[in-house]
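Contributing new records

If you add data, match the layout below exactly. Sequence lines come first and carry their own label; structure lines follow with theirs. Keep one chain per record. Anything else will be rejected by the validation script.
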Amino acid sequence: MKVRKIFFDSEEKKVFIHENKKEEYIMVAIPELHWSIDFTYDEEDVQRKIYATLIGNIDEQEAEALSARIYQWTREM
């Protein structure tokens, strides 16, 4: 599991990223937002899916930036 840090709302928040190589999926969670998502390696439009689930918890601009960052982090794994 990897832990990344993000800053928004003038606070540092932790992003937990877990990769299950055996079952070929990734799970991402931000406990402070009560938010999590999982997706498979071959799933399409992952960044849009992340954005769509974040938009209920944070504003659009932050959701767009955070979804891009999460997508980048998960592709690096």
